[in-house]
Amino acid sequence: MCLLVLAVDSHPEFSLVVAENRDEFYNRPTRPAGFWEEDPDLLAGLDLERGGTWFGVSRRGRWAAVTNYRDFHHRRYSRLSRGALVSRFLSDGESIDDVRQMLEQDDGHYAGLNFLAGDGCRTLYFSNTGGDCRYLEPGVYGLSNHWLDTGWPKVEGAKSDFKAWLDSGSTAVEPLFELLADRRQATDKLLPDTGVGLEWERLLSSRFIQSPDYGTRASTLFLVDRQGSATFLERSFDTAGDTTETRRFSFELPRFRAADDTKQP
After folding, report:
1. How far apart are CA 247 and CA 223, in angstroms?
2. 243-264: per-residue pLDDT in tens?
3. Cα(112)–Cα(207) distance, rounded to whole angstroms?
4. What is the pTM of this model?
5. DSSP class of residue 258?
């Protein structure tokens, strides 16, 4: 997954809104989003190559996402799947504090990553590449393949369009899919240098990526209203960048814990 925008308690109708694109090589086998047979409360796609997932939610009110940290000047190699962190958090029942402690104590099992997770009360951001590790305040955030809110053009543009949607008070989801579908590339002077070469920096600078071998495989939305009703939508794309199907799931989340039980440390 290479682009995510997140609104925490920043919309009149929704306590949480997540909109994200998953970018990947087309030949990497993937199972589309659905409830997992091995854990009927877990809703996510599945990476069939290494297991785990890039973004998922659970009926228990949890959600999590992971992105790669792109720096080919200083590559980090891993023994463990970064996507397994998402499914682990959603399935194992560990507290969000336990997950934070585990990530902070990791001794290099994972390649460079960003991890976002929420339990209905708090939202955690973690990077193992020197970025901030913190619980997020209410607000609007953007993430790609660098640290949270790094000012890459795709992140800044997506956040701007996202904020306009939030400020309008709209509950329509199609504008969120549209902001993720922007294929415009940044000008060369605004491109980061992550060690992949100019041609790839150009390709990866658009919110929606399309090339012969690599591109945006799916766009996903997750919205939770203030009564605890959750909506999860996943739109899949073929190698030409055309929509193949849109899946929609709706369910009720458990009542969130009282605010005095969730004070930040």
Report:
1. 14
2. 999 999 999 998 644 333 443 4
3. 21
4. 0.93
5. P
